[in-house]
Amino acid sequence: MKNFFFICLFSVCFNTKHFYLMSSTNSVITGLGMYVPEYRLTNDELSTMVDTSDEWITTRIGIKERRIMKDKDKASAYMGAQAVKQLLEKTGTKPEEIDLVICATVAPDYIFPATGIIIADMAGLKNAYAFDVHAACSGFLYAMTVADKFIKAGKEKKIIVVGAEKMSSIVDYTDRKTCPIFGDGASAVLVEPTEEKIGVMDYILRSDGVGVKYLRMNAGGSLNPATEETVRNREHFIYQEGQPVFKYAVTHMADVSAEIMERNNLTADDIAWLVPHQANLRIIDATARRMELDPAKVMINIQKYGNTTAATIPLCLCEWEKQLHKGDNLILAAFGAGFTWGSIWLKWGYNS
Ligand code: UT7
Predict the structure, then answer these.
(1) Nearest CA to ligand 1 atom 30
(2) CB 244 less than 6 A from any atom of ligand 1
(3) I need a surface site. Which of 20, 49, 137, 171 has the fewest CB within 10 A?
(4) Could you tell me the distance, in angstroms and rounded to a whole number, from the CA of residue 212 to the centre of ligand 1?
(5) Residue (of 207, 306, 317, 310) closest to 252 by Cα position
(6) Domain range spanning residue 148?
(7) Are residues 247 and 343 located together in one domain of the fold?
(8) Is the overall model pTM greater than 0.90, yes or no?
(9) Is residue 287 domain-resident?
(10) What is the pLDDT of residues 87-100, one digit of tens each?
(11) Environment class of residue 244 by beta-carbon count within 10 Å: exposed (0-12), middle (13-18) or buried (19+)?
C-alpha cells in the first residue's frame, strides 16, 4: 500500500514536471521585415484633392504624409511578400523553413483566397500553409496571439505574422473625413519557440459588434454584394463616423493597456516601450498618459505613414529594432473596426 502511494506520488510529480516543461515554452519574435511603397502623399497634395489643410490634419490626427502603392498590379500580397523577403534575409532564414504564415489585412488582394497564401507563394515559402485573420486595426495583435497558441501547441516552429495593407484601394479620395487617415504598407515578424522567459507574456483581446454601426465597408460582402448601385454610391470604400470611433478608441485602448500592466504588477518604470496602433496621435497620447508613461517611451511614426491598419505595430517594431534590448518590456495596444481592441505584454527577444 505504502509503495503504491509513492508510485502514485512519483507519477503525479513526473506528470506535473512534464506538464511544466511543456507549458514553459514561450513564443518570441526573432526577426522583423518591412516594406512601404516609395510614393509619399503629403498633406499639401491631399489639400488639392479635398477641402482640407496641412494644419487641420497635423493638429487633429498627427499625420504629415502617407505612402501610396501607385502600381496598379501590386497590392497587399506584394507588399507583404516584400516584407517577408526582407525578414528572411535579415534573419538568415531559408524560405522552406517557414511552417505557417498568418496574415492580418482588411485590404486582401481578393475576398478569397486568403492573402497569406499569395504572400507565401510570392516569397517562395514552399512548406508553409497560410490563412488570414480579420480583425482590422487590431489584426496584428490577434494574429500574434494565434501564432503564440500554435507555437505553444508545439508543432509549428517558425511562424510568420504579417500585416499587409493597400489601404489606398479602399479609401474614398473624395471624402475628406477619411482620406487623410490611411496609408499603405506591410510588415512581418518571425515567431519561434523559446524556453526562456521572454516573448509573449500576456494578452487581452476584446471585440464588440457595436462597432459595425460606426466603421465598416458597406458593400462587397454577402449582405450587400456589388451592384452598379453600390459602386455608384461609393459603398466599396471605408465608412467611418470619426467621433464615436474616437471616443471608443480613446477609452478602450487606454483601459486595456492599463489593465494588462495592473494584472501583471507592471509600473510605468518597468515598461521600456509602448507600441501603439497609429490611428490618431491624440489617441496614442491618451493611452500613454493613462499608463503614466514618459512620452519618450512611446513609438510614434504616424506622421510618416499614417494609419496602415494591421501593419502599424510591426512597422514601429521594425523602425525601433536597433533600440530594443533583450528582456525589454513592451506593451502593444490597438483599437479598430469591429470593434476590436487589445493589448499584448511582450518581453523583447534579442539585441540587434
Ligand atoms: O484605426 C481604426 C480606428 N479609427 C480611429 O481610431 C479613428 C478615430 N477617429 C478620429 O481619429 C477622428 O475622429 C478623426 C480624425 C476621424 C476626425 O477628427 P475629429 O476631431 O473627430 O473631427 P470631426 O469629425 O469632429 O470634425 C470636426 C470638423 C467638422 O466640421 P464642422 O462640422 O465642425 O464644421 C468636419 O467637417 O472638422 C471637419 N473636418 C475636416 N476639416 C478639414 C473633417 N475632416 C476634415 C478634414 N479637413 N480632412
Answers:
(1) 177
(2) no
(3) 20
(4) 18
(5) 207
(6) 26-196
(7) yes
(8) yes
(9) yes
(10) 999 999 999 999 99
(11) middle
